[in-house]
Amino acid sequence: MPLLNDEIRQEVSKMLAGLPGPVRLVMFTQKFECEFCTETRQLVEEVAELSDRITAEIYDFQADRAKAEELGIDKIPAIAVIGAQDYGVRFYGLPSGYEFASFLQAIQSVAAGKPELSDATLRVLAGIQKPVHIQVFVTPTCPYCPQAVMLAHQMAIASPMVRADMVEAMEFPHLAIKYQVMGVPRTVINETVHIEGAVPESMVVAKLQEALRA
Amino acid sequence: MLDFKLAPSQPEARPSEEEIYDLIILGGGPAGLTAAIYAGRARIHTLVITGPLPGGQPANTDVVENFPGFPEGIEGPELARRFVAQAERFGVRMIHDSVTGVDLSVRPFVVRTDMATYRAHTLIIAMGAVPRRLGVPGEDRFFGRGVSACATCDGFFYRDKRVVVVGGGDSAIIEGLYLTRFAREVVVVHRRDQLRATQIHQERAFANPKMRFVWDSAVEEILGEKTVTGVRVRNLKTGETSVIEAEGVFIYIGMEPQTELFAGQLELDERGYIVTDRRQRTSVPGVYAAGDIQDPLYRQLVVAAGTGAVAAMEVEKYLEMYPQNHQG
Question: How far apart are CA B81 and CA B75, in angstroms?
Answer without folding.
Answer: 10
